[in-house]
Design a protein that fits this description.
- The chain is mainly beta and about 180 residues long.
- A six-stranded antiparallel sheet has the order 1-2-10-7-12-5, with helices on one face. The chain has a five-stranded antiparallel sheet with strand order 9-8-11-6-13, with no helix packed on it. A two-stranded antiparallel ribbon has the order 3-4.
- A hairpin with a 6-residue loop joins β1 and β2.
- It is globular, with a radius of gyration of 16 Å.
């Protein structure tokens, strides 16, 4: 397993060791002990989720407010996504900055997202399967989000936004500047 730090503290790109042969491939998706050894972080994932989406679907930017904030380990089983996170940690030197990465079934990369981030992804291929682990329960009254096209965030979605498929709920999320008192 190779772990690469990003410019945002505690946000890591993970590349599993993949073993290929004539039968196919095998890799360890997650190893708690190796993850802790390489990052210094201890995470207790309690739930796995899988979402299927058509090309052009944008989900997010979502987050859970404390005390139900969630760390995530995200990856793509099939297809491809542009995965985007925004640092919402009060006092962070990168507060309000975003990081993006293409995750797909070819590169098999994963992204570890610590608590305190808004998260979204845009599917780049039909029938994409997005898999993620979370470390805290979902609590509906703690659910929050930021509008995907917030002009202050200046996220480059690398996609024609007039062609996206997005829920009405996500389309009507507030801007970050309107949430600062709720973080």
């Amino acid at each position: 397993m190779k772990i690469t730090k990003t410019f945002i503290d505690d946000l890591y790109i993970i590349e599993p060791q993949i073993y290929n042969d004539q039968r196919g491939f095998f890799f360890e998706f997650y190893n708690k002990h190796i993850f802790k050894e390489l990052t210094g972080l201890e995470v207790d994932f309690i739930q796995d989720n899988l979402a299927q989406s058509k090309k052009g679907v944008l989900r997010g930017l979502h987050f859970q407010k404390a005390p139900y904030a969630q760390a995530k380990l995200v990856s793509v089983i099939k297809g491809a996504v542009l995965d985007v996170v925004v640092d919402l940690r009060n006092g962070s030197k990168t507060f309000g900055q975003y990081f993006s990465i293409v995750l797909n079934e070819q590169n098999r990369q994963q992204l570890f997202i610590p608590r305190g981030f808004a998260h979204a992804y845009l599917t780049l291929a039909d029938d994409s399967l997005f898999f993620y682990k979370i470390d805290n329960i979902y609590q509906p009254q703690s659910e929050a989000g930021i509008k995907f096209d917030d002009p202050d965030l200046k996220i480059d979605w690398q996609y024609d936004l007039s062609q996206i498929i997005i829920s009405e709920k996500d389309r009507n999320l507030p801007y970050l500047k309107d949430l600062k008192n709720y973080l």
